[in-house]
Design a protein that fits this description.
With 286 residues, the chain is of the alpha+beta class. It folds into 2 domains: 13-141, Urate Oxidase, CATH 3.10.270; 152-284, Urate Oxidase. Helix content is 23%, strand content 38%. The protein contains 5 helices and 8 strands, in the order ββαααββββααββ. It has an 8-stranded antiparallel sheet with strand order 1-2-3-4-5-6-7-8. The longest helix has 16 residues, at 199-214.
Length: 286
């Protein structure tokens, strides 16, 4: 084999798929947090890669143990704040660690019905969507936080269309529509204009506004709805600097029953899983 001159490029190491479930038992009415965690460290790792020298490196097993231990000792507030705690710790603990990132997927739970309107004290049912978080640092003291939403399935059965587009094109076959089902699975993420805030409150505000805005207008396109979602989130969340959406168009096609002598008055649809339209965009403050 011919030897060539190479150098180590951008790299990291850590622990992934760490499942943390925390129960807050300070009162008889329990609270829970359920998160999947990845921590990746960056730093001076040239010797480990090029020479096999592991001196002063943190073991990934240590990373896993630390996540659970700090979840017990800390993690009293938001997932975003917990990410800052973890990264600050690893920069302090690892002689060769200078920074890193932590990624979280939080599974949401609501209370089961109980006596009264407040729900059960210790019974829960898992919900969708998921709360996503990425925290990054270059030095363990300043942080970039990105929060988001995954797997939010929304649909409206009317007040949506797709018309006025380029029809005089050789391969265009789709007819115009001014009344169709709009269905999508919202993935969103946003960056912050402030160094710290009540992250849980901002997430809840953004989540609620996305649901309200999806149905408060006629949608001439999924692109227009994406824009309106971003505008609405920035309107109710001054803490956010910009927001990104990914919206697949989950096609619901009226099934041809007329060939069987049955009239289909917009009641029976075939859900076509692929291929599908896909819209992505950042909506930013002007």
């Amino acid at each position: 084999m011919t030897r060539v001159n190479v150098k180590l490029g951008e790299n990291n190491y850590g622990k992934a798929d760490v499942q943390v479930f925390k129960v807050f038992r300070s009162t008889s009415r329990h609270e829970i947090r359920d998160v999947n965690v990845r921590v990746a460290m960056t730093g001076e790792f040239e010797a480990a890669h090029a020479d096999g020298d592991n001196a002063e490196l943190l073991a990934t097993d240590t990373v896993r143990n630390t996540i659970y231990a700090l979840a017990k000792e800390g993690f009293a507030g938001s997932v975003e704040a917990f990410g800052k705690e973890l990264l600050a710790h690893f920069v302090r603990a690892g002689p060769k660690v200078t920074g890193g990132f932590a990624e979280f997927t939080e599974h949401l739970w609501e209370r089961l019905p109980g006596d009264g309107d407040q729900g059960h004290d210790h019974g829960f049912v898992r919900q969708l969507p998921k709360h996503t978080v990425r925290v990054e640092t270059m030095d363990g003291t300043s942080f970039k936080v990105t929060s988001g939403i995954a797997e939010l399935s929304v649909l409206k059965t009317t007040q949506s269309g797709w018309a006025g587009y380029l029809l005089e094109e050789r391969f265009t076959t789709l007819p115009e529509s001014t009344d169709r089902i709009m269905a999508t699975v919202v993935t969103a993420k946003w960056e912050y204009a402030v160094p710290d805030c009540d992250y849980d409150a901002v997430w809840k505000r953004a989540f609620d506004q996305i649901q309200r805005t999806f149905t408060d207008h006629y949608s001439p396109s999924l692109q227009n709805t994406l824009y309106r979602l971003g505008e609405a989130v920035l309107g109710v969340c001054p803490e956010i600097s910009r927001v990104w959406f990914q919206l697949p168009n989950r096609h619901h096609l009226r099934y041809n029953l007329e060939r069987f002598g049955i009239e289909n008055e917009g009641e029976i649809f075939h859900v076509d899983p692929e291929p599908y339209g896909l819209m992505e965009a950042w909506i930013e403050r002007a």
